[in-house]
Amino acid sequence: MRFIDTHLWRGIDADHVDAYFEDRETIRASVPRIRGYATARMAQLAPAPEPFKSTTLRCPACGMWAVVAEVDESHCRLCFTHWEYDMALLVDYAVGVLGLSVKDFLDHDGGAQVCPECQRHSLLTEAYLAEAPDKPRSFCFHCARPFDGLVTCTRCTLLFQPEGNGDLVCSDCWTTALASD
């Protein structure tokens, strides 16, 4: 993949750009089917993502557990697909991994919520991470942080991490309510 992106891209003329991108995506999607390469490459990568399992996602391009989400930009360590900003990875993940349609995602934000940490509209409440691949978790694609146990504030309807047992409102709403009394 690196050879294709580095060397073949330089020789493409304007008439063949669309065909280049189409062929490149076909090759990327086929990487996991090249069993020897995929097995050897994943074995090489195995020690590296160990401390990052809580931020390692299935790649929307090749389908392997090789995308370590990062705050600024992310890339697949197997097929080398690169996302320069968090929303690109969020859309590709929602469409390529979760199976949402692009239209549904764009029309309804694909279920993306406001993150309780960074306040960006970049949190999916259904993401699967390498540390527990069968357990859906909330994950913010902007601050690259997983969440468990988020609840909806009964006052502002935003998700928040409860601090005690039975919290029904977020700390912002609680502070506002106390200030108005």
Shape: elongated
Terminal Cα span: 62 Å
User: How many strands appear in the DSSP assignment?
Assistant: 9
SSE order: HHHEEEEHHEEEEEH
Q: Major beta sheet, specifics?
A: 3 strands, antiparallel
Portion in helices: 25-40%
- Helical run tally: 6
Q: Can you walk me through this structure?
A:
With 181 residues, the chain is an alpha+beta fold. Helices cover 33% and strands 19% of the residues. A hairpin with a 4-residue loop joins strand 6 and strand 7. The termini are far apart.
Q: What are its keywords?
A:
181 residues, alpha+beta, three-stranded antiparallel beta sheet, two-stranded antiparallel ribbon, 33% helix, elongated
Topology readout:
Layout: H1 2-8, H2 17-30, H3 35-45, E1 56-58, E2 65-68, E3 74-75, E4 82-83, H4 86-96, H5 102-108, E5 123-129, E6 132-140, E7 145-147, E8 151-152, E9 159-160, H6 171-180
Short description:
It is built from six helices and nine strands; from the N terminus they run H-H-H-E-E-E-E-H-H-E-E-E-E-E-H.
